[in-house]
Design brief:
313 residues, mainly alpha, Serine Threonine Protein Phosphatase 5, Tetratricopeptide repeat, 19 helices, 0% strand
């Protein structure tokens, strides 16, 4: 099985972010008094106060106090703290949090075993444990893990994450159905995610309406979804809208100026095809230096057409 767990994890796993504030937060006197009297929630809060103000030693002191009496959040915070620093103490605190029932700690152990001990089997075991405890992140991660080699298993994990409303899982579930050529299910989930604001899925829905993939061809709806994604800044949709205007297709009137405007927006975001087309536009306008600039950018981004035309120029 092909696994690229490290990439998946760093995309989705939440860890402590240590920040230095230009101005220190005011000291929470009332919380401090409660913490000193043994209030566990206050002790955890004091840990966060000191951590956010850059005082790691005092933060750890308060979290340790809460963890020693069995506070799961404090144990998890300590696990995350040491994991960020690649310190093997992370394992101890994650295991403590797991004993207290934390699904996030099981996910933490999965990351620990992958990153620190390079033990993929144990990593998978703990990620599955977290997912079985209804940890949505773990369910999403497992979907990504299995997607290319065992898509049916991936589908089952994405579906569990979707039950919690995870739009990313809807997107990846649609991708997985598309991968196995089940276009009707792919269209359904792309549209579900599109309606919830996923701009890449909006573009996919437009594409599928354009070419009748999993749904009847409907150019009016295709234009609606592609324009919606383009106006939200998705470069692929901007490029496609430029193509449709340049060709006068999907019910749009041919308009070279509108085509150029959409190509330019996509080009500015690094879309190589759009950069090439912007270069062509300037070339036709006899603006050779401007054309060469865009052809060069397109070539640097891998456009074979741009590489070819630069050689001729």
């Amino acid at each position: 099985m092909r696994i690229n767990f490290r990439v998946i994890y760093f995309m989705v796993f939440s860890v402590i972010s240590i920040v230095s504030f230009a101005e220190k937060m005011p000291f929470p006197i009332s919380v401090f008094k409660k913490a000193n009297k043994g209030d566990i929630a206050a002790q955890v809060s004091m840990g966060w106060f000191f951590m956010k103000n850059g005082d790691e030693d005092d933060a750890l002191k308060w979290w340790m106090r809460a963890a020693e009496v069995g506070n799961v959040e404090a144990c998890l915070n300590l696990g995350d703290f040491y994991m960020v620093r690649k310190d093997m103490k992370a394992k101890y605190w994650y295991e403590k949090a797991v004993e207290l029932g934390s699904a996030k700690a099981s996910r933490g152990l999965a990351v620990y075993y992958q990153d620190m001990e390079h033990n993929t089997e144990e990593s998978l075991r703990w990620m599955t444990d977290a997912a079985n405890k209804d940890d949505t992140e773990s369910q999403f991660i497992l979907g990504n893990w299995y997607r290319h080699d065992e898509p049916l298993i991936a589908i089952s994990w994405y579906e569990k994450a979707i039950e919690k409303g995870d739009v990313r899982a809807m997107h990846r579930l649609a991708d997985t159905y598309y991968q196995i050529k089940d276009y009707e299910h792919a269209f359904y989930w792309y549209k579900e995610a599109a309606e919830k604001g996923d701009i890449e899925c909006q573009s996919h829905v437009g594409y599928m309406y354009t070419y009748g993939k999993g749904v009847d061809i409907n150019h009016k709806k295709a234009g609606y979804w592609i324009r919606r994604a383009a106006e939200s800044g998705y470069s692929v949709a901007q490029f496609n809208l430029g193509l449709f205007y340049s060709r006068g297709s999907i019910g749009l009137e041919k308009d070279e100026r509108k085509a150029f405007d959409w190509f330019k927006l996509a080009a500015q975001q690094g879309h190589s095809g759009a950069q090439y087309n912007v270069g062509v536009y300037y070339f036709k306008q006899n603006q050779s230096e401007e054309a060469r600039k865009w052809f060069q950018l397109a070539a640097e981004n891998g456009s074979e057409d741009a590489i070819s035309i630069l050689k001729r120029l």
